[in-house]
Each structure stands twice: as structure tokens, then as C-alpha cells.
């Protein structure tokens, strides 16, 4: 049965889209078929990391939500963009980066039930093994839907008081929605922190397993979202941490 994974953070700037792209690629490298849906319609960005340029987006998630296309017509095979040459595949459903489209979706909204229908259709038509949902930060009805239908909710947290408080709210909501599995990934952790103590503190606070801790990395910053880090630097310790989290998700 295909797994649906929502990647979420309470606040922006946590590196959520970067996580989504790297985890999707890490899993696709094992020969799996992976879909990525960018539901962060007010501020889409995962397309940059997966190498899909705006001028290549003839159809987007917006067009599907407005009844102008099927969701399959808004899907793009970006496998070659991220260097996949074997059986594994990555399909991206991007959100529009056009200012008018973003303004329209913010003004008029959309039928949230269409998202669920679209996810089911994607999994079936593209024969996906995994579907990643890159969510909009914070909590909204769209986020609630993504969380509710997920097999795994991966929360991205920085070691920051505001992140900790927001994550507590998200964990509580997820439990009310009866999410089956939750994981936490700590990002942008300062190298002077005691990672073992940090992991223990977070797990004791939220009663959620910490799947990985990612230190602040100049190498990641230098890439500047121009490509998937784990594909460009496969031996880097950050890439190895992504692969570890990917194995946890797959198991």
C-alpha cells in the first residue's frame, strides 16, 4: 500500500521544502516511484530544488483545483533533473508561481476535498509507492486535510523557542486527527549543541521519535536551493542523515 507523508513545520524558514526534495530523492534512489505535491500555494518553492523551471509548468496544482486540468496533467517527471538513472522515479505537482494565480487562490480559496481526490488519483494513475505532501507552514484547513490523510507526519523543527511552542500545538492537533505515525526532524542545529541531549529532550517533551538531527551547514547554504543536496553530495554527512530518515520512513 502506498505511503502518504506530509512534511510540515509550524513556521516558515525551517527548510521544509529542502527536506521534502531530499527525502523523496533518497527514497527514489532505492528504485521506488515517488510523487511530490507542493501544496504551499501561497509560497511555492520545491520546484526550484527539483529542477523544474516556471516556464516549463504548463499546468500546475492551481489549474487542477480550478477545474482546468486533471492532476495528472499537472504532474512532471523530474527524475532526470535529480540524476535518477535507474528504476526510481520522481513526479512533481508544482503550485503556480504567477502572482495573479497566487492572488486568486488567496482571495477565492479552493475546495479542499479536491486535494484528497487528487492525491488518490495520483497514487493510482502514477502507480506511486510514496506520496510526499509539502505543506504550507502553520495550521489551516488545507493543512488539516494533509495531516489527517497521512500515514506519516514529519515535523521539521529548529532548536528555537517559537518552533518548540508551535510544534506542541501541531502535535496536539495531529493526535486529535488520529495521525498514525509522527516523526520529528531537527534542522539547523548549532554544532555546539549536545545532539544526544537535544534528541532526548524533544522526545520526552512531545513523545514523538526524533528521526534525525541536521546541523547548520554552509555546504547546504551554498547550494542555495539549486538542486538536491543528497544527489550532488552523496557522501556528505547531511546526505547520510537524509538517507537515515528515508530508511525510517520506508520501514
TrEMBL record:
Q: Quick one: signal sequence residues?
A: none
Query: Membrane-crossing residues?
Result: none
Which PANTHER family does the UniProt entry name for this protein?
P-LOOP CONTAINING NUCLEOSIDE TRIPHOSPHATE HYDROLASE, PARA FAMILY PROTEIN CT_582
List the molecular function annotations (GO) for this entry: ATP binding
Key words of the record: ATP-binding, Nucleotide-binding
Q: What is this protein called?
A: CDP-3, 6-dideoxy-D-glycero-L-glycero-4-hexulose-4-reductase
Does Flavoprotein show up as a keyword for this record? no
Instruction: Indicate whether Kinase appears among the record's keywords.
Output: no
